[in-house]
Write a structure and sequence with these properties.
With about 400 residues, the chain is mainly alpha-helical. The chain folds into two domains: about 200 residues, no CATH class; about 200 residues, no CATH class.
Length: about 400
């Protein structure tokens, strides 16, 4: 128990630091840019998150899973997985940059800078995935702190120098993330592997599908708001409200990381997994309800204190998005259980259904209700995802328990 508290404590300290610094960066950027420019920044940030899926190529999840408990069919490839991940990242970033220069000439600098920022961030995640899979949570925590510190310092410097354009902010974040990524690659002694075995890509494809479906339902609202030409001012207000919800998710993520390794090591005993999972689910639900109530009571004051009077009106959006936490936090537990059980394909199908619901719903409600409609669709989407993933996890555990009883 003491070891668990030590590991979790290190993660909480790191994630608290990362969440606080990330929120501070977001606030400083929002205050430095005009609401219209922050709207552009938010749209590019959301689009960059989709590009990050291709830059990752499924290697983040695969590295964590295989270093926690290797799959028999991949055991021979385990030593070269980090090298394959590095090569995929560099080639993908170069290709996407060339494509962005052709497709988005008006915002080419911002988009290309965001692509390389995300590429460097994904490289950092490769190193963290290895540590998390091996249960080295204290070192993982120290790397998180170092990575966020590097990028925060760079953003602070570029703003002090007078940066007022989104591309300047992304370039600064890239420099910080790339500097720390270089240190990580040196530490784990990884060099490119220019011939990636097809069997490795066959294993990463379900994770790419899962991540694409997830990011579509999680980020498509920002892109659709731009598509339907919602005012940049309203998009900026939606962006600041969404960042606060993401800060909560970031702060909750260490629990999921700890539970994933526990679930993965115990995946051969579905009954034990259920015993571990149910208290975590109940706790996540209660915390989500408490946060929803707190946001309903203090959303206006929170927006005013954190972002300032320029974003007055964003509290209504934050109140609606707060309802989604009732589903988001329990979903985090279910998602880790699904991945630990090897249900990535079921998880991907569930995320695809959620993405279809989200896209269809947003296309119907955004023209009529704008950002408020997009906020409510986030709530609906998280509810759909939780039901679908939960059904798969419950069925797998039930079948596993029945098989153990028969044997």
């Amino acid at each position: 128990m003491a070891l668990i508290l030590r590991l979790l404590g290190a993660q909480w300290l790191a994630i608290g630091f990362v969440a606080a610094v990330s929120l501070a960066i977001n606030v400083v950027v929002a205050r430095s840019l005009s609401p219209a420019m922050f709207g552009v920044y938010s749209v590019v940030l959301s689009g960059g998150a989709i590009a990050a899926i291709l830059l990752d190529g499924g290697f983040v999840r695969l590295l964590q899973r295989e270093h926690a408990h290797p799959t028999a069919s991949l055991s021979s490839f385990l030593p070269v997985l980090p090298r394959a991940a590095l090569t995929h990242n560099l080639i993908s970033a170069t290709a996407l940059s060339l494509l962005a220069a052709v497709l988005f000439p008006q915002h080419a600098l911002a988009v290309i800078a965001a692509i390389w920022f995300y590429a460097a961030s994904v490289l950092n995640q490769f190193g963290l995935s290895i540590l998390r899979g091996e249960g080295r949570m204290v070192k993982d925590a120290s790397w998180q702190v170092g990575n966020r510190t590097f990028s925060a310092v760079c953003v602070g410097l570029v703003i002090l120098l007078g940066a007022r354009q989104p591309w300047q902010i992304f370039l600064a974040q890239f420099i910080g993330a790339a500097a720390f990524a270089f240190l990580i690659m040196r530490f784990i002694r990884v060099r490119p592997l220019w011939h990636i075995p097809p069997a490795i890509y066959a294993s990463t494809l379900p994770f790419v599908w899962l991540d694409l479906a997830t990011v579509i339902y999680f980020r498509a609202d920002m892109l659709l708001l731009e598509w339907f030409d919602i005012s940049k001012f309203d998009v900026g207000k939606y962006g600041v409200a969404y960042r606060l919800i993401e800060a909560v998710i970031l702060f909750a993520s260490p629990v999921g990381l700890m539970l994933f390794r526990k679930f993965r090591l115990g995946s051969e005993s579905p009954r034990r997994m259920l015993q571990d999972m149910l208290p975590a689910l109940i706790g996540a639900l209660l915390i989500g309800l408490a946060l929803m109530a707190g946001i309903m009571l203090f959303s206006e004051k929170l927006i005013d204190v954190v972002y300032g009077p320029a974003y007055f009106g964003a509290h209504d959006l934050l109140t609606v998005l707060g309802v989604a936490l009732v589903f988001i936090l329990p979903n985090g537990i279910l998602n880790q259980a699904a991945l630990a059980l090897g249900l990535e394909r079921w998880f991907a199908v569930s995320a695809t259904i959620a993405a279809i619901v989200n896209l269809t719903g947003n296309m119907l409600v955004i023209p009529l209700h704008g950002t408020l409609g997009a906020a409510w669709m986030t709530v609906v989407t998280e509810g759909v995802l939780g039901c679908a993933v939960g059904a798969g996890v419950w069925y797998r555990c039930r079948i596993g328990n029945a098989e153990r009883d028969v044997s």
